[in-house]
Amino acid sequence: MVRNKMALAVMVMALGLCAAAQYGPLVIQAHTPARIFAQKLVNDTLAKHPEVVIMAMHVTPPGKKDNVIIASNIGRMGKKADEDDMRVINTGKSNLEVNKAGNHFEVEAALKDKAGKIIGCTGIVFNYKEGDDKEKLEKQANEINSEMEAQIPTRKKLFEKIK
């Protein structure tokens, strides 16, 4: 039993180091506790789509001026949206990129409420190797994003406390 726990701890640490090398210092969490609806939505979506390795939702909280990560499976809550995120939010056009290591494909897509109003963006990341179909991954990310949008009546709903 102790040996299994040790092996698990080593694997978790190795995964964290790999992620840190690619995305900078971050905390990898298999399941972030849902305190607001946005995190529940991310958790439920990740459970339904195990092919997604990272997901982050960027939205401006009520009464705030900065767009930040409000839900993710990598921590970084409150991290301010970068230039790519804001371009997606301001234009509605997705940002697609393979990371520097060449092992992840990221789709940043505009996040809309049920009325079709842009309320933020979602970063959806897949494992990737050269030759993978980027168009297929983009389509898959957009379908996943649409599934979430269908559950968001308003931006305010994302911040509702979970009991």
What proportion of the residues is helical, as a percent range?
Answer: 25-40%
The geometry reads as: globular
Question: Could you say which structural class the secondary elements and strand pairing correspond to?
Answer: alpha+beta
SSE pattern: HHEEHEEEH
Largest sheet: 5 strands, antiparallel
Unreliable stretches, pLDDT < 50, 5 or more residues? 2-30
Mean pLDDT: 85
Annotation, overall tally of beta strands: 5
* Radius of gyration based on Cα positions: 16 Å
Number of helices: 4
Side-by-side strand order of the widest sheet: 2-1-5-4-3
Task: Explain what you see.
The chain has a 5-stranded antiparallel beta sheet with strand order 2-1-5-4-3, with helices on both faces. A hairpin with a 5-residue loop joins strand 4 and strand 5 (118-127). It is built from 4 helices and 5 strands. It is of the alpha+beta class and 163 residues long. The protein has helices at 2-23, 37-48, 83-91, 134-149; strands at residues 52-59, 68-72, 95-98, 104-112, 118-127. Residues 2-30 have low confidence and may be disordered.
Secondary structure blueprint with pairings:
Layout: H1 2-23, H2 37-48, E1 52-59, E2 68-72, H3 83-91, E3 95-98, E4 104-112, E5 118-127, H4 134-149
Antiparallel strand pairs: 1-2, 1-5, 3-4, 4-5
Quick description:
By secondary structure, the protein is of the alpha+beta class.
